[in-house]
Amino acid sequence: MNPINLDRRDFLKRTALLSAAALLSAGQATNAVALAGADAADGAARKYKISLNAYCFNKQMNDTAKGLRKDGGVTLMSLLNFCAKYKFDAIDPTGYFFPGYPKVPSDQYVKDFKQKAADLGIEISGTGVRNQFTTADKAVRAAAVEHIKEWVEVAAKLGAPVVRVFADTQMKSMTWHDVAAGATREQVQAWIAADLHECAEAGKKAGVRIGVQNHGDFLQTGEQLLALVDAAGSEWCGPIVDTGYFKTPDPYVDIELVAPRAVNWQIKQHAFGEANPAPIDLLRLMRIVRKSGYSGYLPIETLPGKDKNYDPFAVVPPFLEQVRDAIKQTA
After folding, report:
1. Same-domain check for residues 72 and 184
2. 302-330 pLDDT tens trace
3. pTM of structure
4. Residue 305 falls in which region: left (phi positive, over 0), alpha (psi -120 to 50) or beta
5. Cα 284 from Cα 300, distance rounded (Å)
6. Contact between residue 162 and residue 155 where contact means Cβ atoms under 8 Å apart
7. Residue 283: which domain range?
């Protein structure tokens, strides 16, 4: 059982089972449906903390870093003010937006960011890095492992419970087949799993989980995501459910499969990827989340897709309210 989900739900379930055993030993009948109903009722009552994934402001922060904005720009520090204004519970400060990335930020910057977040009542739900694991180039993979280990230490200083990593190429117009140099899927999974295990060992020492995100072409289904996490062989490595990147006819089936083991989420506006205009069914999604027993953060992430006029300042607040409403309606 995933330690991150050993919460009130599990306590109630175990208490109910013990009570049932006692009744049976006394020769009394137990209604199994009633026990399941108590568990479902607890899921319906569960509260969730919504987080802002900083990637919503990807272009704005990159433009700021390049000196292209005349309005003072958008930074991780200013995003904390945005989170406070709209009453987000937490923020996911993606690693690439820290000053100097891919180098780790200074201890002073981490301290200042953490302090400002605390002053505003904003928690830190996780962070993430860029990495390439599908490549046959061992040197590139080894560098990625060291990079993740460095950011595990940053996450620990921030108090972030998860570092988000990828299992795809992170290279535009290239598939995992292109960079795997003829290796089979089984071979590629084996070397990714070994790298993830090494990262998870570092995470274990720091108290930070490694979250594997289904993003790109190597992890297209829930089965593939779980198979990779299982191959990593560590309770400190688990799946991050990216609701927008399961490449299947019905991604909700994949989401429901992975949800019970999730260490974090990425809730997106479209369940079939950013290019599909169909909005995600948030009520259906939240019922899956509640049923799964997950009780951690729910980061949201909006993306521009084909919208050339995408403005996160205008898009994020209404999507936040939609997620809040779905949480309320399913409670």
Report:
1. yes
2. 999 888 899 999 999 999 999 999 999 99
3. 0.86
4. left
5. 16
6. yes
7. 47-329
